[in-house]
Amino acid sequence: MAVKRQERQSRDCKIPLQWILLLPFAMQLIGTIALLTTLGNYYWTFLICGVMLLLSMAFGVFANRWIRQEIEHIEISLKASHKKYKTLFELLPIGISITDPEGNLIAGNLASEKILKVPNQELTSRTYDSPEWQIVRFDGSPMPSNEYASVRALAENREIDNVRMGLFDDHGNVRWLSVSAAPIHLEGYGVAIAYVDISVLKHTEEALRQSEARLQAFLDNAPTPIAIKDLEGTYLSVNQEFTYWMQTSYEAVIGKKDYDIFSHDSVKRVRDMELQAIFEGIAVSFEETVHLPNGQRTFIITKFPLMDVHDKPYAVAGIYLDISDRKQGEMELAYSRDLQAAIYNGSADAIFLVDPLSLLVFDCNQQAIIMFEADSKQELIGIEGRTLQKREFTDAEIDAITDDVETFGVWSREVEYITKKGRYFWGNLAVTRITVASQEINLVRVTDISDRKYAETVLKESEALFQRITTISPEVIYIVVRHGDGSINFEYVNAAIEELLGMSIEDFMSMPNIHRFIFHPDDFESFERELNHSMQTMDIFRHEWRIITSQKQVKWVKSQARPERRENGDIAWYGFAIDVSERKQTEIALASAESNLRNINQELERLINLDGLTQIANRRCFNDRILLEWQRLHRDHQPLSLLMFDVDYFKLYNDRYGHQMGDECLIKIAQTVDDLMRRPADLVARYGGEEFIIILPNTKAEGAIVVAELVHQAIQKLQIPHQDSTVSDIVTISMGIACDLPKLERSPYVLISQADHALYEAKQQGRNRSVLFVE
């Protein structure tokens, strides 16, 4: 649409200056003729006329010179004024362009080049509706040309101020502008256009909206109660957690005061803290027990003022941290510590607490002082435990002990010690790793076994050593043999098997192939596989599996054994096994919790990307997918097509049939179009309101046109009545089609804009049709 203004019909009366100067002479001539006709004395008549003529000529010469000087002065002033105007025009920081009466750009200053990113030479070759302009409204939707400030100023012959718009450059980047236009009432001119770059303002507004949304999400999802009151103590806002603790609704709290909700015992102290926070302008934290509908709870309450732009308090906020469980836990912990201290100091064994990194003792019980004949605890604290041994462990032995403790959780050995007074004794050294207050420490227990060692000296050294290891070990120690026929039997097992399986050693040893009866059936195959691998490679057997006790309990067992091939071909394993049920249960519970969390996150991700009404992809999902497909198809050098359509006269449909029928109409259309898509990469999304968009990867324009026709046919088959439509008595759609070969230097939103432009053309052409965008 071209915008034209009626040309001004004005003509200046241009009379030459010389004609004006001849006017006195003409008047003299007329006077002379009049005198000749009235006076009889011609001599005096000619004399008077001559004098008048000379005076007129002198006046004419003087007037001509004076007028020329004035004209030259005016021309000099006009040139200076024009120069000032041109300098001001070029140096203004605001972009300014000027159009002719038809709306074509004829001039622009340097600032307009910088803001519009278009050289003035190219700028003056464009019209307001040139296809090079890619302009969107402030909300991101395409802006038709009749909304441009310059077009409106020409059409309405008035000033148009602060039209906000976005301008895309050749790289797909958008700059946000505030555009004003005003008519120029001079011949040959149209309007003056002023551009102000407000991109920073736009980004600031978006950041503010995101900040407000994050704040609201924080309040709605905060795990602790939060409340905001005015300075008089009236509730202005509370979050969901606050109403949950109060067992009431949001509306029942807003507008109330604490005296209306809580007992008067605690209200006064809370109000005093609020007033302190308000008047001092600081956060105040205190502990308070509150009577709630579900019982008495203890909170750490933090009150802090909310300040306005003048740094004056206008409200007070409160955060309530429930510490009731922690208080109960502290009481239980204190009881547990007292009990452990009694056991710790009352033990018959020497107990040392050792730092696992430095291996230095940092605490010990009273029995350690007695057993090692020290004068005080300070004499033992800060030393390495091996300095108390008759033969100190080497660094290699210390490393091996540390590895065993980290791997199996416990390590023990019989060690000969020497006390501070030089007396020797044998002790059973047991090391286990424990966690106290989230800190790992080594608990070292030394049991005095001097009497048993003295009794065992009468036995053979080898038997004594073996018995000593097996009887004190908390692990199951065994010797198991696999014969050539595949059968397995245990040659030896220590007493720990009784606690592990709940059966006597005699019963255990009397059953051949007992592993077939006590092993969990689901773990039997993996056990056989690991055992065969160890037998074939003669590597150490390491495995974890489940067993079933005589009481039908399921336990997890961890075992390690070294194989040995005997002369008759049998394979014997010498090893031990420990009960790791608690650790496995913890691992299983943790794995289950992680699996549940993954499932929840997957479901949440699905819901986030799903339109709540139509149950197809939403705009967020579309935005993510278009970026991925744009990058992927750029790598593959394949085309990407978009179909954008909306329902014709949908507002009239809602007005006639109601919004519920309108929602059902959108659901039918969305599900029908979604069912048409056959390829996994195709995506149908609700773009907004009654507007939908389809992504067709690896699809040229011809293929996109075919899909568009299928969509039209499918919606027509629905036969949804629409009596208020001017194009059909059933629901129809208008569609825009755009296709491009993705390039990284271009934004996919350019393709979206093209599809939207094509949709606009389809509506302009009469609706109920598809239009392919052509540059």
Would you write up a description of this structure?
This protein has 775 residues and is an alpha+beta fold. It has 6 domains: 17-89; 92-204, Beta-Lactamase, CATH 3.30.450.20; 222-322, PAS domain (Beta-Lactamase); 329-461, Beta-Lactamase, CATH 3.30.450; 473-586, PAS domain (Beta-Lactamase, 2-Layer Sandwich); 609-772, Alpha-Beta Plaits, CATH 3.30.70.270. Helices cover 44% and strands 25% of the residues. It is built from 24 helices and 26 strands. The strands form 5 sheets. The protein has a 6-stranded antiparallel β-sheet with strand order 2-1-6-5-4-3. A 5-stranded antiparallel β-sheet has the order 8-7-11-10-9, with helices on both faces. Strands 13-12-16-15-14 form a 5-stranded antiparallel β-sheet, with helices on both faces. It is elongated and about 180 Å long. The two termini are 18 Å apart. This is Diguanylate cyclase.
Task: Please outline the helices and strands.
Blueprint: H1 17-38, H2 42-91, E1 95-99, E2 105-108, H3 110-116, H4 120-123, E3 135-137, H5 149-156, E4 160-168, E5 174-183, E6 191-197, H6 199-221, E7 226-229, E8 235-238, H7 240-246, H8 250-253, H9 264-280, E9 284-292, E10 295-307, E11 313-322, H10 324-346, E12 350-354, E13 361-364, H11 366-371, H12 395-408, E14 410-418, E15 424-436, E16 439-448, H13 450-456, H14 461-472, E17 476-482, E18 488-493, H15 496-501, H16 505-510, H17 515-518, H18 524-537, E19 541-548, E20 554-565, E21 571-579, H19 581-608, H20 619-636, E22 640-647, H21 650-657, H22 659-676, E23 683-688, E24 691-697, H23 701-718, E25 733-740, H24 748-764, E26 770-772
Parallel strand pairs: 25-26
Antiparallel strand pairs: 1-2, 1-6, 3-4, 4-5, 5-6, 7-8, 7-11, 9-10, 10-11, 12-13, 12-16, 14-15, 15-16, 17-18, 17-21, 19-20, 20-21, 22-24, 22-25, 23-24
Helix pairs in contact: 1-2, 21-22, 22-23
